[in-house]
Fold this sequence. Notes:
2 copies of one chain form a homodimer. By secondary structure, chain A is of the alpha/beta class. Chain A folds into 2 domains: 5-177, Rossmann fold, CATH 3.40.50.720; 181-294, Orthogonal Bundle (6-phosphogluconate dehydrogenase C-terminal fold). Chain A is built from 13 helices and 9 strands. The first copy, chain A, has helices at residues 15-27, 40-49, 59-63, 78-85, 103-109, 157-169, 179-206, 212-217, 223-229, 234-243, 245-268, 271-280, 282-290; strands spanning 5-11, 30-36, 54-55, 68-71, 94-97, 118-119, 122-124, 145-148, 173-176. In chain A, helix 6 links the parallel strand 8 (145-148) and strand 9. The longest helix of chain A is centred in the middle third of the chain and has 28 residues, at 179-206. At the A-B interface, helix 7, helix 8, helix 9, helix 10 and helix 11 of A face helix 7, helix 8, helix 9, helix 10 and helix 11 of B. One NADP nicotinamide-adenine-dinucleotide phosphate binds at residues 12-17, 37-39, 42, 72-75, 77, 81, 98-100, 124, 127, 131-132, 135, 233, 236 of chain A.
Amino acid sequence: MAQQYEKVALIGLGLIASSMFWAMKRAGTVGEVSGYARSAETRATAREIGLCDTVCDSAIEAVKDADLVVLCVPVGVMGAVAEEIGPHLKPGATVSDVGSVKKAVIDSVGPHIPEGVHFVPAHPLAGTEQSGPTAGFAELFDNRWVLIVPSSDDTDDAAVIRLQAFWEGLGAFVERMDAEHHDLVLAVTSHTPHLIAYTMVGVADDLRRVTDSEVIKYSAAGFRDFTRIAASDPTMWRDVFLTNKEATLEILGRFTEELFALQRAIRKGDGDHLHAYFTRTRAIRRGIIEAGQDTAAPDFGRTGSKR
Amino acid sequence: MAQQYEKVALIGLGLIASSMFWAMKRAGTVGEVSGYARSAETRATAREIGLCDTVCDSAIEAVKDADLVVLCVPVGVMGAVAEEIGPHLKPGATVSDVGSVKKAVIDSVGPHIPEGVHFVPAHPLAGTEQSGPTAGFAELFDNRWVLIVPSSDDTDDAAVIRLQAFWEGLGAFVERMDAEHHDLVLAVTSHTPHLIAYTMVGVADDLRRVTDSEVIKYSAAGFRDFTRIAASDPTMWRDVFLTNKEATLEILGRFTEELFALQRAIRKGDGDHLHAYFTRTRAIRRGIIEAGQDTAAPDFGRTGSKR
Ligand SMILES: NC(=O)c1ccc[n+]([C@@H]2O[C@H](COP(=O)([O-])OP(=O)(O)OC[C@H]3O[C@@H](n4cnc5c(N)ncnc54)[C@H](OP(=O)(O)O)[C@@H]3O)[C@@H](O)[C@H]2O)c1
Ligand SMILES: NC(=O)c1ccc[n+]([C@@H]2O[C@H](COP(=O)([O-])OP(=O)(O)OC[C@H]3O[C@@H](n4cnc5c(N)ncnc54)[C@H](OP(=O)(O)O)[C@@H]3O)[C@@H](O)[C@H]2O)c1
């Protein structure tokens, strides 16, 4: 494929950045990739496993001459990173990010992007429960969606189109969306589900009358799926909830309302209400499988099933 | 392996019964297996795919001369099935079940078991989101737990030991537990997680401002795991909640309390509370993987990850 950016800089070298790097190498669409992470330990690991062509000891060094800079750090520190690198960005370069929240990133990063540099926020809707420089793999974005969320109405269209082609080269589908809608959609499809999973695992861990060892042994009846989600990185998720407060609280309110209605149906023994509710929710599952966004194999294929 | 029961009858021919049948064939521990399901359609499918050595047109016919009868129907109809077959059970036989709730099954089935027949309730903690006669596979119970819940203090010990050996032959680990504790443990590890998943999927389906097609496309960010659980059989789950009302409501109460505390932390911007909570819940995940109750592959291995 043709070269899309001569030099790409990744700031933060965790799950998302490392997956991007391996996917770029697979695609062959960029020249050189430089990287930077906060800790000497992560930088040493990156050098060891060949993550990035050059691992730099400062963000300023990493972004030097870069045509694309991608912020791959937790949402809460993006503003500080942008402030640091802002004065050192190459004129005409594009700054993007992969943050799970978009309005807060636009507000905190935007002011630090100098005239003549394009700021094009984005969010790849793909991830696993693992984190750090060794967690990435080239296939993470295959057939997944990346939402590009232009920071303002006069965002340079050519810069957006170029970033879109870049992500398509990494295996993804791309769509544009405005920041507010993005944050609401993600509150539904990601942020609230994560909070609920964390809560359920917390409840199980808290009970006196059921021991942790019972919870662990008997988890295959449903609970273990929640623990996967609730094993995600605490810093990333703290920042998500602090920065997507409004939409998360709105969806949580809806969730609590519906939960109370089901709770009342259980208390009153209203089997028809329960049955109707449990029937309705099956259609969405079918849609997800038809759209290729999940495997149809029972239990995600992790059981011994051959079908 | 030595023959454990000469004749086994399966009443209900869905996911659990069909998995038991294929696991019995794999183990070679029983003589003949007869089966019965309510609908002519399911019986025809069973005959077609060779599910059971004999498929009978009535439950009474199926249990004739059986040494072990296993009720594999939804919890809410177990009492009626027991009432029907009660007078036709072979003296000295064992009646067991696989119901997800135990106190209600003991109360509804127990009275119909005649003198001289052993009633030994049990619950295999294994399943998938699929149901029906074609959903089963021999490996479903491998390395999973089966809880045997004796119906009374004077349950015949030999009958319990025999049933335990039977389940071990199907690949499972077996433990004994009393009915009340069973229902509480399952409310935590299975019933409440299912209700919460159903609720979250229902909320997503309900929103006007986020379309179903958006929810489907962008589900890989966490939501899709919930849809798998919420695709389970509505009748089975209605019955679970109607019959394990007390324990489910207790755990739901705890869940709501903790959710409100996290919600308050989000509202107040208390990042330390969130971070601490999200850190604590990781230990249980590690325990589950060490205990062999889930795969350590990122994202259950369904991504392209080679690691
Ligand atoms: N994980 C997902 O499922 C997922 C999906 C989509 C989007 N995202 C978003 O992607 C971003 C990164 O997530 P991730 O999963 O890749 O995280 P991760 O694996 O935890 O990696 C985070 C990286 O950021 C670095 N970092 C943290 N604080 C920093 C600072 N103050 N200055 C410089 N570097 C810093 C870390 O460096 P050290 O290693 O030295 O600490 C690490 O290299 C987040 O904004 C997240 O919202 C995540
Ligand atoms: N699925 C799980 O994950 C799981 C795990 C552990 C335990 N369990 C328990 O196992 C039991 C069966 O669940 P399953 O998943 O195997 O269900 P399933 O796949 O839906 O099968 C249920 C079977 O019961 C039959 N049935 C329903 N009502 C009946 C009646 N009134 N008389 C006779 N047969 C009737 C059905 O016959 P038709 O096909 O003719 O309708 C079908 O063959 C339930 O008690 C459930 O709580 C389930």
